[in-house]
TrEMBL record:
Organism, as annotated: Laspinema palackyanum D2a
Top-level class of the enzyme under EC nomenclature: transferase
Gene Ontology MF annotations: adenosylcobinamide kinase activity; cobinamide phosphate guanylyltransferase activity
Protein name from the UniProt record: Adenosylcobinamide kinase
Catalysed conversion reaction: adenosylcob(III)inamide + GTP = adenosylcob(III)inamide phosphate + GDP + H(+); adenosylcob(III)inamide + ATP = adenosylcob(III)inamide phosphate + ADP + H(+); adenosylcob(III)inamide phosphate + GTP + H(+) = adenosylcob(III)inamide-GDP + diphosphate
Pathway: Cofactor biosynthesis; adenosylcobalamin biosynthesis; adenosylcobalamin from cob(II)yrinate a,c-diamide: step 6/7; Cofactor biosynthesis; adenosylcobalamin biosynthesis; adenosylcobalamin from cob(II)yrinate a,c-diamide: step 5/7
Amino acid sequence: MVKRIILVTGPARSGKSEWAELLAQQSGKPVIYLATSRLDPDDSEWQERIDRHRQRRQASWRTQEVPVALTAALLQGTTSDNPSCLLVDSLGTWVANLLAEDDPSWSAIVEELMESLKGLKQGTVIFVAEETGWGVIPAYPMGRSFRDRLGDVVRRLGAIADPVYLVTGGHAVNLSAIGSVLPPTKTQED
């Protein structure tokens, strides 16, 4: 059996989720959609976004809501005898759900995620991640923490994923085909 980790990243409304869904469909494997959002019945606009994502999914796909327990869901979804394609949408929402964690706890959560991916023996995992930090540095600490945490996770996943796609302006660019992986930062080596 073969494992495959794919990262699809890009700005808001660029088409990254649709691209990831197409890749999952093309995998030929049963798809498990790992939704990281939290439902909020008081936020009708958020519910509309979730509904649009649901309507695009294949009827045969299984959906699991995992706003926090992402690593456990990945491990569970990749241990069956019938390898699946797990589509994680999205890492930005997952990071936002865990912003209250202090730095040591957050580091442990990320390490657990990375170790679980290194240990995968089979299946495909497709991550959808928002790109942040292409603009102004957030003026408030929580915004900076979100940007830094998400940027770190995306970089670390980008180092082990193949391929890595950047989706922008409705176009998917295979960064693995035209780019080079940067060496880990000092903090990633520790």
